[in-house]
Design a protein that fits this description.
This protein is mainly alpha-helical. The chain has two domains: 163 residues, no CATH class; 62 residues. It contains ten helices and no strands.
Length: 237
């Protein structure tokens, strides 16, 4: 008979739980980021409205909205055109993905409002009238503006993290000292430029032949890069 821990591992290894866990991991950063962002918006707005005795929204509503955004992020990532500008200058994928995320969230929030209207006894034929006269467009638009701004920050950070390599952005902000980071980056850039010039000056045959000087120079540059990275890790520790 399997032990409880082995049973749990077996269940988690099955396709459906593994898929759910994978989706949660992918959506978790967006959920946390937007939960913090939305709650800050609610807090600051409520501080302003307290002078007028008005109520904006609760923190639970803001956190629920963050869950909706997390689901929208998963939907947007599977769209066939989502990575259309991945090879373009960085500003293009950041703006494009921000707009895609924003549009998906806009559609999801709009449909959510319509579903709430129908569940409250509304008629399908009355949807146009509800949208035109009873829909809170000012509040809806204000939230969408904040969603766009937050997505712009989120996507920019995600793209920079991908550009530097997974986990590098965290090290830049929280691990490495700025002086050490500048020195390490400068050294690595120089070595990468030398490596690029070496590959342009020599063919694949020369670089892959251990007997050539080009191969020896390439190996030396790679060792230098590895050494510099090792020193960077030692400094971070």
């Amino acid at each position: 008979m399997l032990a409880p821990t082995e049973q749990i591992r077996k269940i988690l290894a099955s396709p459906i739980p593994a898929f759910i866990i994978k989706e949660i991991r992918e959506a978790f950063p967006a959920i946390v980021f937007f939960a913090v962002g939305f709650n800050l918006v609610v807090l600051t707005t409520q501080l302003i409205l307290d002078d007028y005795g008005a109520q904006f929204a609760g923190f639970m509503v803001a956190t629920t909205a963050a869950l909706l955004v997390g689901k929208a992020v998963l939907v947007a990532k599977v769209l066939p055109f989502f990575r259309r500008f991945d090879n373009a200058p960085l500003v293009q994928p950041i703006l494009f993905k921000t707009v895609v995320y924003w549009a998906v969230v806009f559609l999801a929030r709009f449909l959510e409002k319509l579903i709430e209207y129908l569940l409250d006894g509304g008629r399908i034929g009355g949807i146009p009238e509800y949208v035109a006269t009873h829909f809170t467009w000012h509040r809806f638009a204000a939230i969408q503006i904040w969603i766009f701004v937050l997505f712009l920050i989120f996507v920019a950070a995600d793209e920079l993290n991908t550009l530097f390599g997974h986990g590098e952005l965290y090290k830049i902000f929280f691990t490495w000292r700025s002086s050490q980071l500048k020195l390490t980056r400068r050294q690595r850039v120089r070595k990468l430029v030398e490596l690029d010039q070496l590959t342009e000056a020599h063919g694949v045959a020369q670089l892959s032949d251990p007997k050539t000087a080009a191969h020896a120079e390439m190996v030396g540059l790679i060792k230098d890069l590895a050494t510099q990275r090792g020193h960077g890790l030692q400094r971070s520790l």
